[in-house]
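Co-fold these.
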Amino acid sequence: MASTEQTRVTVRQYFDTMAARDWDAFGEVLAEDVVYEMPQTAERITGREQLVQFNREYPGDWRISVTRLIADGETATGTMNFTVGDEDLVGLVYFELAGGLISRVTDFWPEPYEPPAGREHLTERGVSGLDRLSRPDGS
Amino acid sequence: MASTEQTRVTVRQYFDTMAARDWDAFGEVLAEDVVYEMPQTAERITGREQLVQFNREYPGDWRISVTRLIADGETATGTMNFTVGDEDLVGLVYFELAGGLISRVTDFWPEPYEPPAGREHLTERGVSGLDRLSRPDGS
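Predicted complex below.
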């Protein structure tokens, strides 16, 4: 069973090799039968080769910056700011490991939306700069 | 400094007391100057009383079920299925602790969207049942 520290190193390598577009090294941290899921679109990719290809083919001149990395036994999460052109997105990634390799990845891409009415007495607008998310109005 | 195990207990209590609508006990795990942020709406709530009130006033006959809890030193994340009426939402929550209390909460509510074209050769539709997210078409 992988330790928390091994998990942290492996997940860090997932992001570092992605950022460097070093797809061979990216593949090395994935289990051969890795499952990658995107619950928002109900899409699933199965297999190391397929997941490497998905990332290699992902369009746009994107850059990523890791903002959180939380590791706990054989589970972990990482969050990133994903920038493509003028647009900032946030990616939230949950990991499961098995035998020291990443066996499951669940990716979320939360999008901006307008706050519902009725809570203005408790909220102010403005958040810390950690999670950079472009808003449609450019704010 | 809080240990990972203390963090896990505290974050578990955050969710358990929320699920039970036990707002006094919910407040006990929050730092007095807790900051709660929702990057998608750029809303922020500051202060224990305000955050308790926000949750107490949150409309609807909602129920939550915790699906992941990952703790690491003074950071953690929890994910939940949030059900209100017929609708399933997923809440992704990131925590920072200080002095054993929750000092920062960052909440994300990812929504379903249609997959972009051009990756059908790698993806299939359908994900595991862990994260339950209602889709507009009811799938």
